[in-house]
Amino acid sequence: MMDECDVTRLAAELAPAAALLREVKLTSNITKAAAELGIPQPTASRRLAALGDALGTPLTVPNGRGIRLTRAGLLLADAAEQAIGVLGQGVRRVREEIDPESGHVALGFLHLLGRSLVPGLLRDFRAGHPRTRFSLVQGSRQSIVDRLTSGDIDLALVAPLPAGPSLDSVVVTDQELFVAVPEDHPLAARPTVELSELSSEAFVMLEHGYGLRQITDDLCAEAGFTPTVAFEGQESDTVRGLVAAGLGVALLPAFEPHPPSGVVEIPLAPRVTREIGLVWPSDRPLPPAVAAFREFVRNRTSGDHSLPLGGDHSLPLGGAGRRTRSDSPQAAHSLPLNGRRRP
């Protein structure tokens, strides 16, 4: 049986081969893996063989013209991948500790937020931090949250806000949702619509994994019905196009400066909003540049949901405020992201 000293010794032997194991996992080819690391192929083969001998089991087996990792090799490659990620974060923190202004932020966000909210935040932050670099990642809510949890991105702007002990968040803004209907729809001339009135309608929705899909499903359930889904898409513009073609109705933020041709947006009664928030991992330290951007956003919101968000894209940050409809009878009501009405 292997004791703790043996484990420590073998872990030390694994360290030089960690990057090699990761490349072999990615390429299934020892020659390509060696070339990626800039070492001779025979050297790479000897390292893997020596490590397998030390562990008492081979790490690779032939697979056609390439190789594949054994079960033991895969286990070690997964551990090596995690270790390299942790070391990379450490190197990054050291570099940014020396020069915080030259840091890098990987920001994930929903497609709908890429027209106004994200550009406005980046513009205003970089006015005071011109050397900070950003990598921008767009996707569904679920994919963004998964990448945040795994460490692929540093911060995320999503709705609804995810729950979990390893994530913290702050609400950035509220965004009103409307019923989008074809312009010749019987409801198109109505000043407001109650969600229960849509129980017999065909819906055009975003796919599962998108925040608006979850919110729509929850709202309909609260109204006492399960929506009939006629079409599913991955982009709100596609959803609007299907609505304009008369193929269904949808719950969407307003499209600014006005709805596209063939679509009418009707406020819900009572008024419905979703909360958009900034999310970050609570179980690992943030590099200085990431922490600086998080604090910038927190200071801008000040806990009052004050950052404007003009439907899909129009109102820039620092403008006259978020969209409201104070002249509508439903303006005194809203719906937070958990699908429960509040006064």
From TrEMBL:
The keyword Transcription applies. GO terms for molecular function: DNA binding; DNA-binding transcription factor activity. Keywords: DNA-binding, Transcription, Transcription regulation. The keyword Transcription regulation applies. Residues 302-343 are annotated as: Disordered. Pfam families: HTH_1 (PF00126), LysR_substrate (PF03466). Residues 29-70 form the HTH lysR-type domain. GO terms for cellular component: protein-DNA complex. Belongs to the LysR transcriptional regulatory family. This is Transcriptional regulator. The lineage of its organism: Bacteria, Bacillati, Actinomycetota, Actinomycetes, Pseudonocardiales.
